[in-house]
């Protein structure tokens, strides 16, 4: 395992050379990620690795792609999507226009899941889905809406467990080991790079989803991001986090009311 | 090795297991009424779709309180923490738990190696790692990391394990401080940090 001091040096160098601040990422996970890429790429001395990162912007980009975790799936945690479908969308549906922000959307699987829910609820035409991530590479994948076919069986199970009643294959065309999701699902999606560490609010939303992103941030950065969401959320709007994430260490919970047992909070003042 | 030596200064006991380990846990946990100021963290392989069943079962069987694991929850003595399904469980220097959804290790998330290595980094010699029954090689590298950081390593006697592969793999690749059957593991846990013999 790399040393703490080596990780600190890397964090400082990346900030100095590229302006990207990993200083507030959760250290245990970040250290594992850096250690992994260091060994995968065959380095034995940390200063060689540092020098490569400093002098080779392409390698730096690759390293960032590798150390930021981009694991996601469609309809991840079906019971969460069931609550979205049954409780949240009917409330949002009363609005003339629905603005949704997927913060840290990675390769977009959850954005397409949301589009499917909205389409089934007859709300997609009056919705807009902003999907942002810090990583430009994953956004390119998300825009295409093409996901590996080997995952589709799990996604179809998740879809059904979330209350979906259609044949899941209605939503994509399978070809050469990939599933391309129907283009009408992507019509209301806007993809853009956004860094939760340093960028500010850019709109007001009725629903913000940021699932399994905050776990990579330390408590101070979590506070910043939750307050950024608070600034970006309309009154009576909803904030949805990952199943093991909470707002309670970050913001006064009297401003929010939790929906059932799910990690969904409604802004009440 | 197998002398009657009391381990002191322990802050965390981390227990890893896979197939067959639940049987050991439900024999051990109901007998632990009180521990001497350390936290117990349990990392067991499970289906990613099992959201709560394992927590519910172990909570039912445990006399100690099981604290639900959320990201950045403080790790406090005298409580039990269970690694949630579909996340790796990590340890922060601020003595909180954190979670990570990165790729599976040894086909597993949570992975025992990941949690053991992370706990070893933070707790060093105040850590005890216990590896139970299982049919996968997860855990061995983690036990090596615990030992290298000065912690104590206990492996379930493979003869007493429903699935001996996992403890056997550890024994083949390292020298545990103790190799114990289920009842002895219970007595060992109760003895930790106690001053009288």
UniProtKB/TrEMBL annotation, chain A:
Short name of any one Pfam family annotated for the protein: CheR_N
CheR-type methyltransferase domain location: 1-247
Gene Ontology terms, MF aspect: S-adenosylmethionine-dependent methyltransferase activity
Stored InterPro entries: Bact_Chemotaxis_MeTrfase, CheR_C, CheR_MeTrfase, CheR_N, SAM-dependent_MTases_sf
Coiled coil: none
Gene3D superfamilies tied to this protein: Vaccinia Virus protein VP39
Protein name: Chemotaxis protein CheR
Organism: Flavobacterium reichenbachii
UniProtKB/TrEMBL annotation, chain B:
Keyword list, A-Z: Chemotaxis, Hydrolase
GO biological process, one term: chemotaxis
GO CC annotations, alphabetized: cytoplasm
Reaction catalysis annotation: [protein]-L-glutamate 5-O-methyl ester + H2O = L-glutamyl-[protein] + methanol + H(+)
Stored InterPro entries: CheB_C, Sig_transdc_resp-reg_Me-estase
Residues in coiled coil: none
Organism of this sequence: Flavobacterium reichenbachii
Identification of the protein by name: protein-glutamate methylesterase
């Amino acid at each position: 395992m790399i040393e703490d001091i080596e990780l600190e040096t890397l964090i400082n160098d990346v900030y100095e050379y590229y302006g990207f601040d990993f200083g507030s990422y959760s250290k245990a996970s970040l250290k594992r990620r850096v250690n992994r890429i260091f060994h995968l790429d065959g380095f034995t001395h940390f200063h060689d690795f540092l020098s490569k990162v400093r002098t080779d912007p392409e390698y730096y980009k690759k390293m960032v792609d590798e150390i930021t975790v981009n694991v996601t799936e469609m309809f991840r945690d079906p019971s969460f999507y069931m609550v979205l479908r049954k409780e949240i969308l009917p409330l949002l549906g009363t609005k003339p226009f629905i603005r949704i922000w997927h913060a840290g959307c990675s390769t977009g699987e959850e954005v397409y899941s949301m589009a499917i829910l909205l389409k089934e609820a007859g709300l997609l035409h009056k919705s807009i889905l902003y999907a942002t991530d810090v990583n430009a590479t994953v956004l390119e994948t998300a825009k295409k809406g093409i996901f590996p076919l080997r995952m589709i069986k799990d996604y179809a199970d998740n879809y059904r467990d979330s209350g979906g009643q259609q044949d899941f294959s209605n939503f994509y065309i399978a070809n050469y080991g990939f599933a391309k999701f129907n283009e009408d699902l992507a019509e209301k999606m806007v993809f853009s790079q956004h860094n939760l560490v340093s960028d500010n609010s850019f709109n007001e939303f009725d629903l913000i989803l940021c699932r399994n992103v905050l776990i990579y941030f330390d408590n101070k950065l979590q506070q910043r991001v939750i307050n950024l969401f608070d600034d970006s959320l309309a009154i009576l709007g909803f904030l949805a986090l990952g199943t093991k994430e909470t707002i309670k260490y970050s913001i006064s919970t009297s401003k929010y009311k939790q929906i059932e047992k799910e990690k969904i909070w409604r802004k009440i003042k | 090795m197998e002398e009657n030596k009391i381990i002191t200064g322990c802050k965390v006991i981390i227990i890893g297991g896979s197939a067959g380990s639940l049987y050991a846990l439900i024999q051990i946990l109901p007998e632990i009424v009180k521990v001497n100021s350390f936290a117990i963290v349990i990392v067991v392989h499970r289906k990613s779709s099992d959201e709560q069943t394992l927590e519910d079962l172990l909570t039912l069987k445990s006399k100690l309180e099981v604290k639900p694991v959320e990201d950045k929850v403080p790790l406090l003595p005298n409580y039990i923490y269970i690694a949630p399904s579909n996340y790796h469980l990590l340890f922060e220097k601020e003595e909180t738990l954190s979670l990570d959804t990165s790729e599976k290790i040894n086909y597993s998330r949570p992975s025992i190696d990941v949690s053991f290595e992370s706990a070893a980094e933070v707790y060093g010699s105040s850590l005890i790692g216990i590896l139970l029954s299982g049919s996968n090689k997860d855990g061995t590298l983690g036990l090596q990391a615990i030992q290298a950081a000065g912690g104590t390593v206990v492996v379930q006697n493979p003869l007493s394990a429903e699935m001996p592969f996992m403890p056997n793999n550890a024994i083949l690749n390292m020298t545990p401080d103790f190799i114990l059957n289920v009842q002895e593991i219970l007595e060992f846990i109760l003895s930790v940090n106690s001053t009288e013999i």
